[in-house]
């Protein structure tokens, strides 16, 4: 089944999104059942190569056999670099080829991109031990490098071209290749998302230059590693969805267009389906007249495409040191799930440390992701600061400087609305963002802290019929507004601390009777923010519903209680390019502070919502619902095991 779709004035047919229409034999990878433990299949080879390297003396050591582990690690790192680069460049927009975004379905389907690295590693280890000419390789042999180039340009490219055309025959396409073409808008790792049977053939093809150099005794560490790197580089580049090959390269050497494809060239194969079959060298498309006539036009158009200007900008920041891996620019599998601590990330502490050093040295806001909603272009930028730094008073000036620079930069770009996410708004830090409006009174960009929507969501999360709640946590702008709205509804508010009671009394002038100071923990509805202690949480009665009004959720200590999400809502299906979770929130759920900026732009509101100002809560809530955002509902019934 095919569906017509037209992004960026390109027309193509989209295959049905599943493994394959009629999965053929050898579709699944043999180690699929192992899940995340699949790397154990390399353990015997790694142990064996390490033992031989350590046990043997210098003359008997096979360094090339031992270094195969380094090749495997390099391939993983190389692929990850391309993933991060592609997501960064497509988020910025310059050079982007197709506008249609990634979705969770594609991320999940392409999550096994490292399977082909494991498969190749098994072949490399086996060949290194048992094939003649593969042991104790020298570092360099010039003849081997030249032979590798010739064998790739000849047999490999030629055979791949015809095999690829065969894969587009209905019989093979429906059973195998349709899985790869489920990704219309590609990302680098799309290049290796194929059924196992296809990879068997691809590995055989790519083994031709390696086997040829082995038989002629010209294989070397450089020719082997460089060829594998070349394959990965060209595969990733061809699927990265942004054009990066400069035009002057083809002007300087015109025949190059027959021997090197571009990302836009291969992108046409995924949109037009029956053109541009070549592997990396388009020469066979020219010879057999299967080149797409719009290849040159798309290349030039994509290359000229400038950086995109968003309508709405969400300004967030890093949370914990390992949060860098959970960004859309980080590990795709982690970014596509709510942020939870993973034990294996502790093993990466050297990389984590280096990332912290780099963010400190770089010291500038960076683009994280982009979405499209209705006619709005949305972007997220991140401040290179962590939660801990926001609680250090001596860091306030540096953080405020970064936020102010981002606002000025967004103003110059023509951004309509900037919403302050997480701790980028705070009373002590910047008076809930009001300090920037005070310093720059003529800003055209609207600054939104999202407090009115956060209040509205909190109020609508409280179960109907509630007559009393316990309010506990740091008394922010949102907390005061929630308390005021509850008192207007006649709901009694209980506080546990005298200082909180006094602060609320001042803001609830005329409604103090609805406020109670008590030491009772018997309430079943707790409105909580930052500052809730573990001891207080443990004293809550069984079945208590914790409703956060702050940006960060409380630590879940009780299995016999219920924890709602921080103020957030489900996004409409029309929101495009959603392939990462926002911090700890579920898929396709967005925080109130982020949604508020979108609604502000959609409604065309001209006022700022920051400082101690707050928009009309009911008006903001109704507008948000009208634009398709839906409240989050959690189950308050314990399941029995």
TrEMBL record:
GO cellular component: membrane
Start and end residues of each Fatty acid hydroxylase domain: 151-290
Topology of the protein relative to the lipid bilayer: Multi-pass membrane protein
Main location: membrane
GO MF term list: iron ion binding; oxidoreductase activity
Very-long-chain aldehyde decarbonylase CER1-like C-terminal domain residues: 469-631
Keywords: Membrane, Transmembrane, Transmembrane helix
Gene Ontology BP terms: lipid biosynthetic process
Residue ranges of the TM segments: 36-54, 144-163, 204-228, 343-363
Subcellular location per the Swiss-Prot or TrEMBL entry: Membrane
Pfam families: CER1-like_C, FA_hydroxylase
Similarity comment: Belongs to the sterol desaturase family.
Protein name: Fatty acid hydroxylase domain-containing protein
